[in-house]
Amino acid sequence: MKSCFLMASVAAAMLLAGCGKSDAPASDAGGASVADAISSGSAMNAGTTIAANVAASPLHKTLAGALQTAGLAATLSGAGPFTLFAPTDAGFTQVPPVTRDGWMRPAQKAVLAGVLNYHIVPGKLTAADLTAKIAEGGGKAVLTTAGGQELTATKSGNAIVLTSSSGNKAAVTGADLAQSNGVVHVIDAVLVPAM
């Protein structure tokens, strides 16, 4: 069973690595853009923790459920600070259903936690901080995630693009959503770490 799940995860990573991303704001399943949801003020509350904001976000229902299942909602309720790259529900739909459903099984809690920890960077990194690190790194910044793996940030036009260790990419579609314990950047895909 574990080898089947691992093969499905690798297949998902390969599938996602081929997904192209544009600099245009992503849309949720209902057609509203991330920028519209953020600018309406309904997406995040700066006086609340990352976990509470994700749980209340209409664009992050899958992520909120996954954080609960993996036991990471408590971590993201802590003092931090944290930087969370938060895939939208539409981003999660890019993961093949068999893989996505497999991650949510109780027996795969550690695998799910590994995937989600790959979206968390200790400390608070704003878009300006990321842009400065990319410039300092000659066009790329290598970030160390909460899971201890490397995540690469680059620029494509005005967009910050994240590349996972497995090769798939996600663009930041909503930056600098202030939280009481850090910052959230909305991204348009799930980043798959090396498994």
UniProtKB/TrEMBL annotation:
Gene3D superfamilies: FAS1 domain. PROSITE patterns: FAS1 (PS50213), PROKAR_LIPOPROTEIN (PS51257). GO terms for cellular component: extracellular space. Residues 1-17 form the signal peptide. Pfam families: Fasciclin. InterPro entries: Adhesion/Biosynth-related, FAS1_dom_sf, FAS1_domain. Keywords: Signal. The keyword Signal applies. This is Putative surface protein with fasciclin (FAS1) repeats. Residues 47-191 form the FAS1 domain.
